Amino acid sequence: MDAANIDLKAFSERFYKKVCGGELAPVLETLEYLHQETSVWFELTTLLIPGENDSEREIDQMTQWVVEHLGCDVPLHFSAFHPDFKMMETPRTPSNTLVMARHIALRNGLNYVYVGNVHNEQCSSTYCPSCGHKVLSRNWFELGTWALTDTGKCSHCNTQIAGRFGATSKPFGRRRIPVNIVC
């Protein structure tokens, strides 16, 4: 396996038991294993559910753990909850909650933090951790600015951006790239 996106659903045993019927510790152990023992590129996604896993304290603890145990270059995506299937009485995640979570994660030292399930180009784009220039612009599923070399370096300051990169044609826009999956 070359890459994975892993849901870190919350950072409390209460949430994992109540909402998921599981436990937090095995998830954290798996993340540490991936980081320390494999070459798998992985990213984390947390669906922020109002009143369940969206407190500043929990997000602060979670992002501090990520930096300490996985490093500052693991991408973290905070996604907005929409009551479309279960938990219909729970409201949508407010945009300001996503922005707050992103701010906490950046303050705690994570370099690549994104918001999802909302239109917010500023908080969905990738910025160079060295010079601060936008190197990859995203808005929902649309890619815009691409200021990276073919090897994934910032075209402004030549800093290597964390990730797996290959040559691509620009501008990207909304087109899809076919992926070959070999079983």
Automatic annotation (TrEMBL):
Q: Which GO terms describe its molecular function?
A: 4 iron, 4 sulfur cluster binding; lyase activity; metal ion binding
KW Phosphoprotein (keyword) present? no
Renumbered to this chain, the signal peptide range is none
Q: Which domain of life is it from?
A: Bacteria
Any one of the GO BP annotations: glucose metabolic process
- Keyword line: 4Fe-4S, Carbohydrate metabolism, Glucose metabolism, Iron, Iron-sulfur, Lyase, Metal-binding, Pyruvate, S-adenosyl-L-methionine
The prosthetic group or cofactor this protein requires is: [4Fe-4S] cluster
Note the PANTHER family from the entry. Answer: PYRUVATE FORMATE-LYASE 1-ACTIVATING ENZYME, PYRUVATE FORMATE-LYASE-ACTIVATING ENZYME
Q: What is this protein called?
A: Radical SAM pyruvate-formate lyase-activating enzyme like
